[in-house]
């Protein structure tokens, strides 16, 4: 069964909010976003002045090693960073909502679900084990003031059946009666059923077998296109990012170190960290020794340098300036890179070109 189309003049979906620009994929502008966590050593930064533009209607991937700040950035898009963390500075401007960082109370709660959808990394952790999926769906509808509960259930069944599941059976099931892939699809349904236009998926294929992973990716791609969404996907899997995303943001140490069209970033990576990530990918053919892991370990909250480049301890292009000055993000064309060595190389190439 396919999801019912709602064109111009058609009645709104059951969770439809009275939001300007409804049905239009929103753009997102993150500016100088700093998130800190309170620790015995004081407040330590998990995100250090991140700036990122997400174009309307795109699928943007956020990649990097564990601890790079990917999930913290994703949660910040919903102003959902929980104590002991907090957003210390910066803004997250979303079309139709304004600065999400400034939203509080009922206004923020209404924005989540009705405008912003989130699919959690561990799908089973986002479901109440004591309630059926259907009861949790009705709870969601009540919390967002949905009056037509029957229409909400019909929409949920359509979404689930669109994803290859028996909608009635799933709504009557508890989480332990569903497989990992089924729970992940339930998470996608709950993120979309109130007509969210910005959807954030946090590691949507983690711990799933290869066939189920492929199914989830196909569903994400199709639903993104059919509903006209802006989608953000957090993943540690470069292959998943290559298959699904339009643009890619590479994170390290709470910074976005490279950002641009996915095929350009993966085909001609400029930042030494991006190059190291790609070199570490195992090959199915050729010389196995060509896959080389990055030396050293990624920094933790307690070991992040307070000045200079966060990647310098593991960087083959390290220079004296990297010790004291944090490289600013520099944009050339559609690519943005934060690296002193890359920018110096680019400047040298330009000087030679015009000499």
> Could you state the order of secondary-structure elements as H and E?
EEEHEEHEHHHHEHEHEEHHEEH
Count up the domains: 2
Strand order of the largest sheet: 6-7-8-3-9-10-12-11
- For the record, give the distance between the C-alpha atoms at the N and C termini, rounded to a whole number: 63 Å
**Largest β-sheet summary:** 8 strands, mixed
| CATH fold-level label of the largest domain | Rossmann fold
What spatial form do the alpha-carbon principal axes imply?
Answer: globular
In which range does the helix fraction lie?
A: 25-40%
CATH class of the largest domain: Alpha Beta
Q: For the record, what is the CATH homologous superfamily label of the largest domain?
A: P-loop containing nucleotide triphosphate hydrolases
Estimated structural class: alpha/beta
Strand content: 15-25%
Number of E-state strands: 12
CATH architecture of the largest domain: 3-Layer(aba) Sandwich
Mean pLDDT: 87
Q: Can I get a quick summary?
A:
The protein has 355 residues and is of the alpha/beta class. The chain contains eleven helices and twelve strands. It has helices at residues 70-76, 105-114, 133-143, 149-162, 167-171, 180-192, 210-227, 238-244, 262-267, 272-279, 340-353, and strands at 28-39, 42-54, 59-63, 85-94, 98-99, 116-119, 198-202, 230-234, 247-252, 255-261, 330-332, 335-337.
